């Protein structure tokens, strides 16, 4: 069996922990819990004919007062950049954070998850932002930790990209 380290990165309160909880334990809670440092989970997944043991590193969210410790990213085979679709500023932070991650660990596979799709009526990401994502050629998945939409797809797509490297 192959083990692969995958990190969850993104701004504060984008739903990184909720996405991991939905993926690993099939649960969701409306109770917000701040991640302090890093929380590590594991999940065995099948990608094609290959089993992969994902070691999921849920890193605390970056805001103006704290910076993600780039050393947490070392050894990662891939990562998910999580954006809160109801807060446009989290997409701006994602652009910056993705560049910093790539500068730290190199060009490994990543997926951008536009989280909180269940709150589509409150969406703050417009068509021009979506066009910018398309121009960057990023793999983007609309998701919701609350409903489960896109969660499995995001992790399995990342696993597929990791295995194709």
From TrEMBL:
Q: Which residue ranges traverse the bilayer?
A: none
Write out the entry's keywords from A to Z.
Answer: GTP-binding, Nucleotide-binding
Q: Quote the InterPro entries the UniProt record gives.
A: P-loop_NTPase, Rab, Small_GTP-bd, Small_GTPase
Q: What domain of life is recorded for the organism?
A: Bacteria
Q: Which SUPFAM superfamilies match?
A: P-loop containing nucleoside triphosphate hydrolases
Checking PANTHER family in the record gives: RAS-RELATED PROTEIN RAB
Q: What is this protein called?
A: GTP-binding protein
Q: Which organism is it from?
A: Funiculus sociatus GB2-A5
């Amino acid at each position: 069996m192959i083990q692969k380290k995958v990190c969850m990165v993104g701004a504060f309160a984008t739903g990184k922990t909720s996405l991991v909880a939905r993926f690993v334990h099939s649960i969701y809670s409306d109770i917000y819990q701040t991640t302090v440092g890093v929380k590590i989970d594991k999940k065995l997944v099948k990608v094609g004919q290959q089993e992969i043991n994902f070691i999921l590193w849920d890193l605390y969210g970056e805001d103006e007062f704290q910076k993600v410790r780039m050393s947490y990213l070392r050894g990662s085979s891939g990562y998910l950049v999580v954006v809160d679709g109801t807060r446009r500023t989290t997409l701006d932070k994602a652009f910056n954070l993705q560049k910093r991650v790539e500068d730290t660990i190199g060009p490994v596979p990543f997926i951008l998850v536009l989280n909180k799709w269940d709150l589509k009526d409150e969406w703050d990401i417009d068509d021009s932002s979506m066009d910018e994502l398309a121009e960057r050629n990023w793999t983007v998945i609309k998701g919701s930790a609350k409903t489960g939409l896109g969660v499995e797809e995001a992790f399995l797509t990342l696993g597929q990209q990791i295995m194709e490297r």
